[in-house]
Specification:
Elements lengths: L3 H7 L7 H11 L6 H15 L1
Length: 50
């Protein structure tokens, strides 16, 4: 998985949280945030399972 620093360099929305990303995608149609669900979603569920 990409480190947060590398991800931030490649993807400007890296510091955006999942709830904020959901609002940006669903309410403001900012679909450029959509990849966060693939990167941060699994990390959230993995941390939750531990």
């Amino acid at each position: 998985m990409l480190s947060e620093t590398l991800l931030g360099q490649k993807f400007p929305f890296a510091s955006t949280g999942l709830l904020e990303a959901n609002n940006l995608v669903s309410k403001e149609q900012q679909h450029q945030c959509y990849p966060l669900f693939y990167v941060k979603g699994p990390a959230f569920w993995q941390a939750r399972a531990q």
